[in-house]
Each structure stands twice: as structure tokens, then as C-alpha cells.
Predict the 3D structure of the following.
Amino acid sequence: MDGSGEFFTEFAAALAPEVESTVVSYPQSELGYPDLAAHARKALPDRPHILVAESFSGPIAIALAASAPPGLRGVVLVCSFARSPLPGFLQFLSGGPPVWRVPEWIAMWMLLGKASTPLHRKLLAAKMHSVPPAVWRARMRAVISADVTSRLREVRVPILYLRALWDRVVPAAAGDWVLRNANDASVVDLEGPHFLLQARPRETAEHVKGFARRVGA
């Protein structure tokens, strides 16, 4: 949700050399999902590829996949959603005063829990303070109103959903909703927190590489 892409270093390294990865960073502006999807579209390659979308970025990947870009072979959703998972809770967070942020210890407990490391804590603290509060709130509002279920039903490539069993942000029902509404979807449950790619980079990378081989990307 910070949009920097800096949390994916270990995961990208675990994908290599079998899978070449491109991390898409978002601009630090109050853009909604349609504009962010247009921004991400510019990074799509012409050759066979898959989209991997974590948490906030799920609706973006679904919207892109529904438009059937050339070369797309599949989508991996990680602890993500097609419709807003916790609208009441996020409504509370998005209505804070102009400089308000979630306390770091709460964010760490929610996102990583017992899987946190000193490096994770340092990076999370830096990212929380580098993103303007107005951008945080705009992205929370985007999540609150998110519902791309109709676009999900238009996706014609396979979808792999990686679900974290210790997730304190996105409930398990979000994965069930994807299963019920997608044309071709499967769910893999893994022990880990909401930041699953960060806490389990090698394990999640193996699942993504296996999926890429299966769909021919």
C-alpha cells in the first residue's frame, strides 16, 4: 500500500533466475484504482507473463487481467481481495486528522506479527513516514469502495490465490469470494502473516514459479 515496491526485494531474489520480475511502484499521489491500473499497465511486457498482486493491488491486477492484455497467462493474488474486506475498520482509519498515522507497533502487529524482523521493522517505519498522510487516506478510501467482482468474472486466465493463515488484515473469506466468482481459481493456504511475501519469500516464490510453469509464462 505504500507503493514503493521496496518490500519485495527478498521475494524477487527468490524468483530468480527462473522468473524475471519487474516491481511496479506507484506515484505518491492521491490516485484511485482506475488511475493506478493505468499506471501499472505501462509496465506490462509483450511476452508471456503473469501478474502478482499483494493486498491493496489485487483490484488493479483483476482490472488489468479482465482487459486481456497481450501475453498475460495468469494472475497471483496474495492476501488480497476483489471487494473491500473490512470497510468499517478502514473507514475509521481513513477519517483521522491530517497528520494521523497508524502507530508503528499496531502496523507491525497487523502486518507481520511474530514473523517480524529488525529489518522489517526498520523498513516499515521508514515507509510509514515517507508516504504523505493524504496518500494513505486516499488509498484506504479506495479499498473501502473497492468491488471489482464483475471484472473478476471477466478474467479468462487462471488465478492462484495465496492465503496467509495468520492474516490480521484480510480475512479468509476474501479468498473464498475470489474462488466463488472467478472462472478458474485455486487457493493455497500458507502459514504466515499478511505480509506473506516478506515473511515467506522463498516458499511463496516456489508457488509462483510452479504456477508460472503451469500457465506457460
Remarks:
- The chain has one domain: 6-215.
- The radius of gyration is 16 Å.
- The beta strands are 49-54, 72-78, 159-164, 185-190.
